[in-house]
Amino acid sequence: MSNPIQTIVIGHRNPDMDSICSAIGYATFKQLTGNANAIPARAGDTNERIDYVLRKFGVEAPVFIPDLSPRVSDVMERNVISVRRDSSAYDAIHLIERERLRGLPVIDEQNRCLGLLSAFRVCQRLFPARDEAGEARFIEASLPSMVETFGGKVITGKLDQAMRRYLLMVAAMRADSFSERLGTYNPSDVILFVGDREDVHQLVIRAGVKAIVITGGLEVSAAILKEAEEAGVIIISSIHDTATTVFLARGAVRVESMISAELFTFTPETLLEDARDKAASSRHFVFPIIDENRVLVGMLSKSDFLKPVPRELILVDHNELSQAVHGAEKVRIVEILDHHRIGGMVSESPILFWNNPVGSTSTIVALCFRQAAVPIPKPVAGLLLAGVISDTLNLTSPTATPTDRVIVEHLCKVAGVDARELAAEIFAVGSPLLTMTPEQTIQADAKEYEHERGNFVVAQIEELSFTHLAEKQEALLAAITQRVRGQGLLFMALLVTDINTQNSLLLACGSDSFLAEIDFPQRAPHIWELEGVVSRKKQLLPYLLRCVERMH
Ligand SMILES: [Mn+2]
User: CA 453, 525, 547 angle in degrees (round to 5)?
Assistant: First the structure.
């Protein structure tokens, strides 16, 4: 049975409040409208403000998924057919035939994978090359499993369970020639296959062979039975003729000795892409999948690479792959809900792509509930409200639209929360400048943009005032410079927004010819005063793009 398709609803890397809250909200909407397999996820850490809101409304943080690249575990066969190492070749070959396997994994008592058994290897062993054929009469097996292969019946004596090397012999010669031949072997290793030839029976009982298999369902005389019992020689009866019985008995050989020595395995976490490359250059068709203790957990066939990965993606609050979770490009993106610029996403087939220039993606999610006439669960309404408040600085940002106002009013009613109070609570916790290292501060809400003149990163933090900036600005500029150098960026900018005065300061480092284009009043080297600018997307980004275009 194939796995049900999992629908992952996820925001951008370095998630902000809107991206976490809209992912939870939209996954809930999908669940309530028929997709039980929708799960919210996050591509990065939450921050103190997000944690505060999740706690307040009693909702768990979405599952952390750092990389969505398909893994071996996505397509491997979990119901594995295997044999234990002490199984007989007879059982294994029938299993291979019945299940039409290209390779049968052999395991030990702890389910650890020892290797693969192929029908080819078994045949090679049972039908050896002519110059090695003499060896084929020696088999490593236990007596009970040998008797089982030809459906024999024990007439006298007791079969010991031990696994050992036996020599299969057939008495086809005259008794005296045979006697001479028997003398060259250790009789206690010998299993003799013979019909109703009493002279031979007597001879080998006296020589002390391990067992006599009487073939063709023939009777044994009472005198012979008595003598065998006294000598401790086992007598077994087979209904098959001698040739058939010997042939079947050879199938008792343990599979352990036939395992292919070179073992080609993967782990469930192996990237499917890597496994595909390695498998393509290998002559094997099937690959055991083992965990860190070598325990067999699955099998991968070359045909499994053609299976679709049972996962699809819904992007919220972003539409550019450069901002999406790692591996997003290798998974089918089925929907995008966003309120940012369109970043050149290309899709193979038609998808639902709702880009609406409202104040937050949480607003769009609330509109989805409204459009489908599905009531918003109370905790979800609280989260969506936090998403709108956070992205629009409680409707004061120029990105806020009349739609956001209507939605905020509705969400307040459903959640039973006052928007102004919630805004004050959110921005009062976890000042990034006070609670994070400079590296964390510039990374927390950083977004990457690809541009033909060079890639750049723009981050933003919201503060209740600029009071704590002065003591941190040198360290922040150093961290920004390091990132610009490390990634070879055109520039990186950090917008520090004072949500009380609705003004921002811009810290930027990078190409001199780019920085020369910034014409806001400069407060200090690499720091500009951006009065009335609070929106990265609507105010800052278009401005920065114009600066890039003007660059010489
Ligand atoms: Mn947003």
Answer: 25
Q: Which two tokens stand for residue 300?
A: 């991968």
What is residue 305's predicted lDDT score, i.e. its pLDDT?
92
Predicted pLDDT at 3: 58
Domain count of the fold of the chain = 4
Q: How far is the CA of 466 from the centre of ligand 1 (A)?
A: 23
227 within domain boundaries: yes
Q: Which residues of the chain have pLDDT under 50?
A: 1
- Give, for 297, the enclosing helix (H) or strand (E): strand 296-301
Classify the phi-psi angles of 316: left when phi > 0, otherwise alpha if psi is within -120 to 50, otherwise beta: beta
Q: How far apart are the CA of 544 and the centre of ligand 1, in A?
A: 19
How far apart CA 272 and CA 182 sit, in angstroms, is 58
Q: If we measure between CA atoms, which residue out of 265, 311, 307 comes closest to residue 75? A: 307
Residue 249 in tokens: 């008995």
Q: Given this model, what pLDDT does residue 260 score?
A: 76
Does residue 483 share a domain with residue 443?
yes
41 & 165 share domain: no
pTM over 0.90: no
Query: What CATH number did the domain enclosing 22 receive?
Result: 3.90.1640.10
Neighbours of ion ligand 1 (CB under 5 A): 18, 317, 360-361, 391
Question: What is the b/e burial string over 114-144, where b = at least 16 CB atoms within 10 angstroms of the residue's CB?
Answer: bbbbbeebbeebbeeeeeeeeeeeebebbbe
Identify the pLDDT of residue 333.
95
For residues 174 and 167, give the distance between their C-alpha atoms in angstroms, rounded to a whole number.
Answer: 20
Instruction: Please give the distance, rounded to the nearest whole angstrom, from the Cα atom of residue 337 to the centre of ligand 1.
Output: 10
